[in-house]
Amino acid sequence: MRFASIDIGSNAVRLLFANVFESGTESVFKKESLIRVPVRLGLDTFSIGEISVARAQNLIKTITAFKYLMEVNDVQGYKACATAAIREARNGKEIVQELFEKTGIEVEIATGQREASIIYSNHVEEQLDMDKTYLYIDIGGGSTELSLFHKKEIIASQSFAIGTIRMINKRIKESDWEAMKKFVKNLAEKYTPIYGIGTGGNINKLYKLYGNNKDHSLTRKAIKEAYAHISEYSFADRVVKLGLKPDRADVIIPASEIVLAISKWAEMDKIFVPKIGLSDGLIHELYEELYTKKITEIYYDEE
User: Fold this and answer.
1) Cβ contact 164:219 at 8 Å
2) pLDDT tens for residues 169-195?
């Protein structure tokens, strides 16, 4: 079975295709392809408070292309979700309505808490040591979602208006930094040691460049070294010499600063990077919803 998900983020818009294979009682999810378009909605929202006509039209063109790709790939279902840039834009709801009218694609505008729950749908912590405490860290362009799991149970979850595009535009309030610091430090006082689970494009890129492939992790030391190394290069050299995409070369620095701050407050030395994110969570949610529906239909047929 092939499914698709659309993640309309503050930095990029993503289309993920994934296959689900059912074998006995197990369901295996396999990514097929990911298409990423750097529409950068957050540059408008976090500077002028709304999305410009030009950028909105780029979004509509992107989603139209995604619609045709989903038709060609004959997906059994899709989910589409918009995060901070759409959520906080004065014209965000109008743009989502226009998207539906012009493409037929329904888009959910997710709250910060909803973002965290979608990411949690991946259930990565179930593949790790159940006796340990893990802090999910998802860093986006407009927000950072944190969720603490202790013995596979969610203990606390919160979204903070701290993201890479906001940092570039210098649109983060000191009170937001203090709120996140207090949240993380309070968790660290109650649960120790804490291990991280990092998601999002920037953490994935840091892992690819500086991570430990043996246990799929990034140490705090490695992130510090990565931050120092990347900071030595100009924007152009990050693209040319380090091979970063232009829309990654600027945001990877603030992303490193965010994850370093969190790891310091949590006294966290290691972050596991499963290379999943909101797009993957949407696929898991969609499959679970359709699977439940399928069972219900079979049940009533038998009645």
Assistant:
1) no
2) 999 999 999 999 999 999 999 999 999
Task: Assign 23 a pLDDT band (cuts: 50, 70, 90).
Answer: confident
pLDDT at 298 over 60: no
CB 136 within 8 A of CB 199: yes
CA dihedral 164, 170, 173, 176 (to 10 degrees): 10
The secondary structure of residue 10, as a DSSP letter, is S
Q: Which fold has domain 124-275?
A: Nucleotidyltransferase; domain 5 (3.30.420)
The dihedrals phi and psi of 31, each to the nearest 5 degrees, come to -65, 140
Predicted confidence (pLDDT) per residue in 265-290, tens digit? 999 999 999 888 899 999 989 998 88
Q: Do the domains at 2-112 and 124-275 have one common CATH topology?
A: yes
- Which of 188-197 are b and which e, b meaning 16 or more Cβ less than 10 Å from the residue's Cβ? beebeebbbb
Rounded (5°) CA angle 18-275-149: 110
Amino acid at 73: N
Q: Could you tell me the pLDDT band of residue 132, with boundaries at 50, 70 and 90?
A: confident
Question: Which H helix or E strand runs over 127?
Answer: none
Both tokens of 51, joined, read: 């999305």
How large is the angle between the packed helices 252-265 and 220-231, nearest 10 degrees?
Answer: 150
Task: Classify domain 2-112 by CATH number.
Answer: 3.30.420.40
From first CA to last CA, the distance across the chain in angstroms is 27
Domain ranges of the chain: 2-112, 124-275
- CA-based nearest residue to 266, from 180, 204, 162, 140: 180
Residue with tokens 């979850």: 157
Tell me the residue length of the chain: 303
118-137 average pLDDT score:
79
In this prediction the pTM is 0.89
